[in-house]
Write a structure and sequence with these properties.
mainly alpha; two-stranded antiparallel ribbon; 9 helices; 76% helix
Length: 270
Amino acid sequence: MLKERIITALVLIPITLWGLFYLTGGAFATFVGVVVVLGAWEWAKLIGLAGNSRLTYSLACALLLVVLWCASTWARLVVLIGVIWWGLAWFLVIGFPASASYWKTCKVRYLIGFLILVPAWQGLVLLKQSISLPGNWIIFSLLLFIWASDIGAYFAGKAWGKDKLAPNVSPGKSWQGFCGGLIAALVIGLIIYYRSDLIRDSLLLSLLCLVILVVFSVLGDLTESMFKREAGLKDSSNFLPGHGGILDRIDSLTAAVPIAILLLWVLGVM
């Protein structure tokens, strides 16, 4: 399992970095859009759609991205809607399984898929297009934080995990794993802070923002786990050997991106 994870990661990381640093404008939006539409395809399966219905849902997601690309004035509103969704997601995860009664209907789950995927796409496009910020490096830093958190949580959880983080949602996750992931992300954050001028705010404020990002990235992971548990699935698909599906790889990012944009707004740098 670990060998497969490493091999898949070694393939995915260069593709991700190529898309991030080489592509611009519509090409970058399309690159991320393909990932998001594949995520929508997996989400459709997660909520019980099949055949033409699954395809229709994925195409609807693609059409929505095209509309938003053409109507860029909606960009900030879309990200804000994403922030609101992740605020509500806390209550759904904490209250699971009782909270499932709020989203069991198909129409609600259709909407939730868009709320998870579309604001993340919009946030990445906004960062990439930012004139006041080094968008590429902000996105790259976000990826590093999430990757470090995932790796730290994996190994800390394996070594010391015993106290369940969210037993009703994801029994495999522990508080020890969460702390290990947070420490790993903070180490990366300290390296970036001292070795570059990417972060110009105070160290304490920067670390506080990083903690918030890591917490929400974990929420993104737990939220997908909640829907998978309700659907009786371990992974969103087997598209990525050792990792599961596209959603399994981007769930943390879908939550972290809108929150990162919000923090940049609050700090007055975007």
